[in-house]
């Protein structure tokens, strides 16, 4: 697949800037427009010095997605705006590739139905890093043998949603193979609220936010006289970009929504 015309929403954010670099450095994707909160009509070339990127910024997503001739929307914004952009893109026949996390279950199911009705391929991936996808798959495998598990996710302190999309997706995958049950002592109490973390069917999720972190997760399994830790670290946001590129290419072959990069990895 060559020359896929791409709109990037959130081009000046931490992930958006990496996505622009990735698009600039390869030949299958070309940037045709951006959606941002401000800088109407300016280009990322003028604003951030991206060479050869003359595509202009729209501040109105509805106008951009209805007027610009594009194949794919890459959304790297915020939960509320990411949901709106994804819906508008599907309605306009533009295939969304969504990295934005924090959508509710209702929003995900609404988008899934809309994508099927319209036959518009859509990929929503809570984590585009190949290592993180493997970490989630290894965790699902391990949970068959170790049903007591806690997830610790650690992110930079500018992150809006907690727990992370990756932690939720990990818990969802583990749920497929683990029977719900309470973990820890049956009479345990929290003397400080939140001490035991969030609860998914008895599994615990703990979220840490600190400056200096990028994106990290440990899935710790406890057994009889042993523990197993599956751990992944994104130490730079370029770790997500091979997954974004792959998704932008593969979404062209889909006519439904898939949630998770594992569905398109060989
Ligand atoms: N799936 C994955 O592999 C990854 C997903 N993420 C997710 O991607 C999203 C973005 O993350 P970061 O780049 O770290 O955040 P960021 O805060 O650095 O960037 C978000 C950008 O969205 C823009 N924005 C806000 N409202 C907008 C609107 N209405 N229209 C257009 N743009 C708007 C902001 O101006 C900002 O530039 C988050 O939801 C995060 O959880 C982050 C890393 C990896
Ligand atoms: O906000 C981030 O940074 C990240 N968000 C995604 C998530 O919520 O899982 C992916 C990755 O962890 C980085």
TrEMBL record:
Enzyme Commission number: 1.17.1.8
Subcellular localization: Cytoplasm
Keyword annotations from UniProtKB, A to Z: Amino-acid biosynthesis, Cytoplasm, Diaminopimelate biosynthesis, Lysine biosynthesis, NAD, NADP, Oxidoreductase
InterPro entries linked: DapB_C (IPR022663), DapB_N (IPR000846), DapB_N_CS (IPR022664), DHDPR_bac (IPR023940), NAD(P)-bd_dom_sf (IPR036291)
One Pfam family named in its UniProt record: DapB_C
GO molecular function per UniProt: 4-hydroxy-tetrahydrodipicolinate reductase; NAD binding; NADP binding; oxidoreductase activity, acting on CH or CH2 groups, NAD or NADP as acceptor
Domain Dihydrodipicolinate reductase N-terminal: 4-128
Pathway(s) it belongs to: Amino-acid biosynthesis; L-lysine biosynthesis via DAP pathway; (S)-tetrahydrodipicolinate from L-aspartate: step 4/4
Location of the Dihydrodipicolinate reductase C-terminal domain: 131-265
Enzyme class of the recorded protein, top EC level: oxidoreductase
Catalytic activity: (S)-2,3,4,5-tetrahydrodipicolinate + NAD(+) + H2O = (2S,4S)-4-hydroxy-2,3,4,5-tetrahydrodipicolinate + NADH + H(+); (S)-2,3,4,5-tetrahydrodipicolinate + NADP(+) + H2O = (2S,4S)-4-hydroxy-2,3,4,5-tetrahydrodipicolinate + NADPH + H(+)
Sites where the protein binds NAD(+): 10-15, 99-101, 125-128
Cited Gene3D superfamilies: Dihydrodipicolinate Reductase, domain 2, NAD(P)-binding Rossmann-like Domain
Assigned GO CC terms: cytosol
Annotated positions binding (S)-2,3,4,5-tetrahydrodipicolinate: 156, 165-166
Catalytic residues identified in the record: 155 (proton donor/acceptor), 159 (proton donor)
Subunit structure: Homotetramer.
Membership in a protein family: Belongs to the DapB family.
Chain's role: Catalyzes the conversion of 4-hydroxy-tetrahydrodipicolinate (HTPA) to tetrahydrodipicolinate.
Protein name per its UniProtKB record: 4-hydroxy-tetrahydrodipicolinate reductase
């Amino acid at each position: 697949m060559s020359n896929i015309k791409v709109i990037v929403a959130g081009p000046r954010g931490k992930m958006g800037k990496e996505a622009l670099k990735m698009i600039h450095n390869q030949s299958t994707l070309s940037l045709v427009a951006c959606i941002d909160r401000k800088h109407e009509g300016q280009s990322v070339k003028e604003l951030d010095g991206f060479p050869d990127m003359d595509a202009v910024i729209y501040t109105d997503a509805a106008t951009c997605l209805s007027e610009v001739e594009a194949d794919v929307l890459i959304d790297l914004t915020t939960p509320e705006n990411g949901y709106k952009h994804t819906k508008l893109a599907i309605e306009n026949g533009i295939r969304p590739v969504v990295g934005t996390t924090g959508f509710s279950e209702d929003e995900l199911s609404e988008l899934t139905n809309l994508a099927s009705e319209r036959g518009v391929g859509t990929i929503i991936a809570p984590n585009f890093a190949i290592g993180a996808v493997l970490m989630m798959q290894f965790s699902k495998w391990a949970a068959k043998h170790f049903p007591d598990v806690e997830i610790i996710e650690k992110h930079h302190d500018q992150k809006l949603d907690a727990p992370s999309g990756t932690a939720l997706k990990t818990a969802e995958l583990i749920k497929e193979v683990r029977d719900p049950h309470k973990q820890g002592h049956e009479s345990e109490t929290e003397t400080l609220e939140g001490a035991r973390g969030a609860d998914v069917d008895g599994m615990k999720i703990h979220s840490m936010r600190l400056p200096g972190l990028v994106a990290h997760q440990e899935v710790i399994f406890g057994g009889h006289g042993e523990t197993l830790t599956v751990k992944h670290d994104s130490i730079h946001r370029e770790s997500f970009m091979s997954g974004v590129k792959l998704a932008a290419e593969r979404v062209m072959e889909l006519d439904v929504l898939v949630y998770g990069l594992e569905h398109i990895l060989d």
